[in-house]
Amino acid sequence: MLLPWVFSCSNENSFPFEEEIIEKNDESLSRSYTLYWDISNTCELILQEPINEILSEIMSIQEYRYMYDLILINDTRIQYIYIYQDDYNSVAAYEPKFKMMYFRDEYVVHDAFPEEFIHFIQDLAYDGIYGRSKADIEFEAKFFQDLLNLNNGAVLRGTGDQYGDLYTKWILKIYDEFYITAFIYDIIMEGISGLTYHEFLEDFAAANTSYGTPEHFDPQLLKYLY
Prior knowledge:
Layout: E1 33-38, H1 39-42, H2 45-58, H3 62-74, E2 80-86, E3 92-95, E4 100-103, H4 109-125, H5 134-148, H6 164-177, H7 184-190, H8 197-207, H9 220-225
Parallel strand pairs: 2-4
Antiparallel strand pairs: 1-2, 3-4
Helix pairs in contact: 2-4, 3-4, 4-5
């Protein structure tokens, strides 16, 4: 069954449904959604296995266990998990206003869940990410994944157009310091070769203009973890 400390989940039985519950003219949300399946409320078996599988994997990583502690401290849950379609044909999304998590279909859950889970934890670390700069939030989440996935050959997610090589060297520098110093956050923020965390953020935002202009606030999730 779905892990109760992460999800609000009942044993009610229901069938897949199609319902437009978020109006296109609701400007307070990032997009409009057509919802096909309320997984969190019905506990449908189709998603229990992949979600539990990826939770078991990520909870073997120390940083994710720290994020779990933040869930306990705030006594909160992901309120809804949906199979959905949106205006952008997105693979997955997290909507902070309602603490909803969405997946395009059950086949993308394993690969897409970690980043959406990070956005959920950012929502706690920032005491709400609703209304904050999407560029800052997305870069922090992708940078964090790059740092954790460095040794498994994954493609780096937080690179921009101008400083790609230096971004890789920056990640390597941080990784090399993990077991040497207790001041990882300071090393992250100082960057490399005169480029700070915020310069790499700016480069990422310039290459991903759909995320808007960064506000350059301190990365609170990284500060909490490191």
